[in-house]
Specification:
- The protein is an alpha+beta fold.
- Helix content is 34%, strand content 32%.
- The protein has a four-stranded mixed beta sheet with strand order 1-8-3-4. A two-stranded antiparallel sheet has the order 2-5.
- A hairpin with a 5-residue loop joins β3 (59-67) and β4 (73-80).
- 12% of the residues are buried.
């Protein structure tokens, strides 16, 4: 029984040591809004919030978006924009998908700026 316990403990310890020594994932590559716009596969349009319409609020919401190697949005950082429009923009962009960005033939994470323009008709 002691031998089995020791083997299990050694396996857990080796896993922990290997995880600590693993190199960190590479930093995302910054790409321009124009480049990332051409990589969008699925672009969900935001719903214009009723409260913002009633208040006649218009404007641009700017987001910093991190896209993973598989083309899925991993993180969104709100940069600026009218308060009543921010949540709608963020909810829409979470649903976007991109073609993977390739660097030397290898998919890499990217960071880009997305601007969502809300304009009343």
């Amino acid at each position: 029984m002691k031998t089995i316990t020791w083997v299990v403990f050694a396996g857990i310890l080796m896993t922990a040591v290997c995880a600590q020594n693993a190199p960190p994932p590479p930093a995302p590559v910054r790409v321009t809004a124009g480049v990332s716009k051409g990589m969008v596969v699925t672009q969900v349009r935001p719903n214009y919030p009723a409260e913002a319409k009633a208040a006649r609020v218009q404007g641009v919401v700017r987001l910093e978006v991190t896209v993973g190697t598989g083309g899925v949005v991993e993180n969104i950082l709100l940069l600026d924009g009218p308060d009543l429009l921010q949540q709608a923009a963020v909810e829409a962009v979470w649903q976007w998908t991109y073609r993977p960005y390739l660097l030397n033939g290898v998919p890499v994470r990217v960071v880009t700026i997305v601007e969502i323009n809300f304009a009343l008709q």
